[in-house]
Design goal:
mainly alpha
Length: 114
């Protein structure tokens, strides 16, 4: 039988790895975007995207661009593939994060009730 702590650690590790993969893929998407679509790169503040002075509204613009799948109209197949990968990894990373927090909050509640 798997202990609760081991389960939490395993879910947390998987969530962390998928979040790192998502951030890495997002960085490579910005590099590809700089070459194939400079206007979009400028609109989403590609240079300052990961800086502390990053413009959140421009980052949200990229989120909506990918969420609404506007990249399917783009001419570059590499850019489209990167956008699809970012979208899939975002869904995967957020699913594991939500699962981690749900399981950990459930275990805390069960400890309080005991």
């Amino acid at each position: 039988m798997i202990s609760g702590d081991a389960l939490l650690v395993a879910i947390f590790m998987v969530a962390t790895v998928n979040t790192c993969r998502y951030i890495s893929t997002l960085r490579s998407l910005l590099v590809v975007m700089r070459d194939c679509d400079p206007l979009l790169y400028q609109q989403v503040d590609g240079r300052g995207f990961f800086s502390s002075q990053g413009n959140v509204s421009k980052q949200i613009r990229l989120f909506h661009y990918i969420r609404s799948q506007q990249y399917k109209k783009h001419h570059d197949p590499l850019f489209m593939a990167k956008c699809m990968k970012v979208r899939k990894l975002f869904v995967l990373a957020t699913t594991f994060m939500i699962t981690f927090f749900a399981v950990s909050s459930f275990s805390v509640i069960s400890l309080v009730l005991i």
